[in-house]
């Protein structure tokens, strides 16, 4: 297999909520090792798009391939088509509101997926979880409950939980939007390290500086379509369209 | 001045004990079956199949919106006519109590599950869990905590509801008290003692419910 096959490839992807057309035909290839920044005004469809990429939302139409295999809306694989369960084992997601499991200790939050879905033995799952906690700087919180963590700590645990599945792709949906400003940095630092290590990522973000910094490519979405795409330099420093200029000006002040 | 005489009534203490025992058996039995019925109806109501949802909802409303006493009498006197078979008071009593409490449990279970943030379901799905696995490992453990106070409350009511089986001569505490009364002609002592016995059974349960409710509020 060549290095050039995209991890995720979508063509003409659409998503409707009732009569509301949220995505109006998205074409997108995500290459291994790529860090893709998705920006755009609220309601532009960027969150819906990223949620389609692990079938958290089922697309209404279009083609969706993961490592060249068609994705089906069934939980299990169907023939050569990859099911949602299998897809999500390989495409992790981190949410805006963390969504940690409040009844489980930090360590158990991280080992839950490996143990129940991947059927890893407890010792193996815990050893890796402790390793991941060290990577996000929270090795001392292994036995704490999520309620006793700060927002930034919760989000770092959530990232570790997603990484515990050893995903090929990580989707980050506005992961710093619910954080107090002083806690954003610690989460971004973790993501930056992932990017440096070659993790394939898609991030929906309002942190333009951060997107410029770590993204290998930035997509500007508006009204359900990809309005502009290019390097961070192109998109954020030399925006072509009036709309993108208008959108960015609100962040530069 | 009324001359209290518990001695006469106490001579039939074994009848009270028998009544308490029967009451407990019907309570435990109907709660056991009620939980099974309640879980089944709850998942039917959360199902994506409209027919299951409608079926469960109809069952619930039928039993929640008619008096338990009427249900008991209907199951014992009317249902046998309809089916052409005889139904013992034990069967009629246990069946009705179970279905009745099950209809309330359905609502308690459903409420507990629905109270869990949908982000929990999404987070479970995002690590590759199936709906069933997520329900078992993530949703239910959290929902049970939320359900517990309401569940215990409904179960307390259930203990008292067994007294309605008096109407079809099931030998539970209230019926046995009436037996003692008819033997001793001491209604004041007999029914007072029965009330005390119900109280002794139920007071600890309400305390347990309060305890869980306090603990739940603390963790919120």
Characterization of this structure:
The complex is a heterodimer of chains A (253) and B (220). Chain A is of the alpha/beta class and 253 residues long. Chain A contains nine helices and ten strands. By secondary structure, chain B is mostly helical. Chain B is built from nine helices and no strands. Chain B has helices at residues 6-10, 13-45, 50-64, 68-83, 89-114, 118-126, 131-161, 173-184, 187-219. The termini of chain B are far apart. The chains are: A alpha/beta (253), B mainly alpha (220). At the A-B interface, helix 2, helix 3 and helix 5 of A face helix 6 and helix 7 of B.
Which descriptors would you attach to this protein?
heterodimer, A: 253 residues, alpha/beta, four-stranded antiparallel β-sheet, 9 helices, 10 strands, 24% strand, globular, B: 220 residues, mainly alpha, 82% helix, 0% strand
In short:
The complex is a heterodimer of chains A (253) and B (220). Chain A has helices spanning 46-52, 84-90, 106-116, 122-135, 151-163, 181-196, 208-214, 232-237, 242-252; strands at 8-17, 20-30, 35-39, 61-66, 69-70, 91-94, 169-173, 200-204, 217-222, 225-230.
Could you give the distance between the termini of chain A? 47 Å
| Percent in strands of chain B | under 5%
Percentage of residues assigned to helices of chain B: over 70%
Structural class of chain A: alpha/beta
Residue-averaged pLDDT of chain A, rounded?
93
The main sheet of chain A comes to: 6 strands, mixed
Distance between the termini of chain B: 55 Å
Which descriptor suits the 3D outline of chain B? flat
Widest sheet: strand ordering of chain A: 6-7-8-3-9-10
Fraction of residues in H or I helices of chain A = 25-40%
Mean pLDDT of chain B: 93
